[in-house]
Request: fold
Amino acid sequence: MPQNEAIPGHQPAKMEDSVETQSLFISVTETARLYGVSPNHVWRELERGGIPHTKMGRRVLIPRQWVEDSAEAVAASAGRPMAAAGR
Reply:
């Protein structure tokens, strides 16, 4: 059977059903993009201890849940909904 041929009777998983669509950790670059700051700013905060993170080899990863929770807190303290805060 060719690799790209669908399996009869099989429904492929939807993207929103996949664990891979929402990884547990995000990169420094992605964190910077979500906050609307430079990656250098995120690095400074990491070094200062202001952002929780873990290392996997040479990669620094930030917990997605922490980023989402803290972004919501920042938006709430500014009195704006998340959509207006860049989300």
In short: The longest strand covers residues 59-63. The mean pLDDT is 77. Helices lie at 28-35, 39-48, 64-77.
